[in-house]
Amino acid sequence: MGRPMIAKLLQAGYQVGVYDIDPAAAKQELEKGARLHDTPRNASRDCDIVITCLPLPHDVFDNMTGEQGALAGMPPGSVWIDTSTTDYHNTIEIARLAAAIGVDSLEAPVSNLSHMGVDFANVSFFVGGPLEAYVRRETVLQTMGAVSFHVGDIGQGQSVKLLTNLLFYTAAVASGQALCQSVREGVPAQQAWRKFVASSANSVAIEQFVPFLLDGSYDRSCTLEITVKDMGLTVQLADELRVGLPIGRAVEKRYSEAGRKFDRYDNHLRVVELAEAGFGVRLQVPGYRAPSKYGANHAHPPDHEFLTDPIGRIKPKREHVFPLEDVTLSDIQIRLLESLAGELTHVNRLILDEAFDLGRGMGLSDALIHDVITWSVGASAWSDSHAQQYGKEDLIDLAGPIAPPLTTIPHLICPYTEELS
């Protein structure tokens, strides 16, 4: 995700030095005007701002600290901005070392507002750290993204990112399970997908990521290693805050299982292959390719046309061409799709409650939690349609329950019945 952010900074006229453990990875950035350095220390020397965007917590620590770490080259008065999704305890320790040499620290984990929104600066930043440092560097964040939120101290930014990711990962697992069940009952995957997109079950995950299941690529934009790490951090945070998180823990188990079964560098939606194996189906639609370079067609051109939704968020305008003709569905199949759409909606509702529990545990207001969810990859039709209620400190249950009270983990998350304690 760092490459497009560097490109935006260069386009805006900033001078950018870069470091990567694999120098070849910076080739495109060098061609656009960036300068390559051989160590983080040399890359950060005399810089006003140092930005890190790295996969795992230890990567951040190793690149910031030590004799050749970035802190060794940063002058007093400069600012470190970490856009990684990481363990906030790690960030606090690095910030402590930075403060000792007069360097301010901001955590600013990034969330795509659409599939790979970072490619066209369509991302949000959830910023934790000193407000004064944020205000001084807000312009840089706005250059790289669409919106940023100052959410509080270091730790609260990472917590926001984790709770929005929790919503996305849950929707990904649940929608994969629902699609597999549909296909097993004879419903073509593309027809089930269109039904879910047009229903109250829709979400960023369903609308913009499921196509990468339908073309069999499982989405090349992110590795399974990242998703396993994110969900592990989410459960760790829930333990620290003493938040139950029953659905979130079941989702984490699914990702952990996928992490053990597949290569860590496999594409992140391979988690749905667990459901495909369980149902004995494949979601891939013969001849279909998702309209994105991150799918089966690596040569697909970049997005150039965009749509704006009623809230003001933008997304790529992508045409989906399925070679197979739709089939006439039976009454039983139609009822199945309606039932599954209702179950997906209910899962969205339940996991939204768990996300709020995490945010409240970190001391965030309901209004702020709702705002960051709305402007994140975790947004759904359910969270959008209840926007007006989340401005109140006490969340209001608008409608009666749309499913029985939760006594077991929904089968769209856990294929085996799991009683809640």
TrEMBL record:
Keywords: NAD, Oxidoreductase. It comes from the Bacteria. Residues 155-273 form the 3-hydroxyisobutyrate dehydrogenase-like NAD-binding domain. The keyword NAD applies. The keyword Oxidoreductase applies. Residues 1-152 form the 6-phosphogluconate dehydrogenase NADP-binding domain. It comes from Aminobacter anthyllidis. One of its GO terms (molecular function) is oxidoreductase activity, acting on the CH-OH group of donors, NAD or NADP as acceptor. Gene3D superfamilies: N-(1-d-carboxylethyl)-l-norvaline Dehydrogenase, domain 2, NAD(P)-binding Rossmann-like Domain. This is NAD(P)-dependent oxidoreductase.
